[in-house]
């Protein structure tokens, strides 16, 4: 059993493995009182006036107390982060890292701006950890990249992946959780999807091109798919994968 878990962990791509490890270590450290959550949460005043810049990163690593909700989000983090990195961003680790950086920046910006808007500032002031929102953003982007995959929710009903974010949002509302966390992730995910996929098709320009200094941090093997000459391929039939979540 331990060997199987070790192999599963080692087979994770680098970004997924790093983020999952940091999230588990941070959350466990807080649960054991080794780390104080008060040193991790997003506080614009402390960031700006006391230069506690690390809060811009650490608020994405803490997933609150270790309970069923923690296991739920660790499952989604490990699953959809890995699926994106291994499939959609295969051979493009720098682009995947830039997607996460973009999402984190959008989420932070929304919370900072929302905290200055009357009537909603109180709601945004309660959002001090954005880890769940960033995870939900990855779920949203994956659902946009794989809209026709058939899924099942707790064995109760089936749906296509395009509706996965809305199903999870509805579930959060049913269990009494705040919908703001999921909605922020959907906003950040849609912003990325629009700028990376929709806008380039409309204009031919790609505004989210990964900076060269980020690409220099990662070395990816080129993924080459060879096709024999003079061979005609019929269109592949649609493949439906059944996932049990």
What can you tell me about this protein's structure?
The radius of gyration is 19 Å and the shape is globular. It has a 3-stranded mixed sheet with strand order 2-1-3, with no helix packed on it. The protein has helices at residues 2-10, 14-31, 44-49, 55-58, 68-88, 93-114, 121-125, 131-145, 164-174, 179-203, 212-215; strands at residues 150-153, 157-160, 243-244. By secondary structure, the chain is mainly α. The chain starts with a helix and ends with a strand. It is built from 11 helices and 3 strands. Residues 223-245 have low confidence and may be disordered.
Task: List its salient traits.
single chain, 245 residues, mainly alpha, 3-stranded mixed β-sheet, 11 helices, disordered C terminus
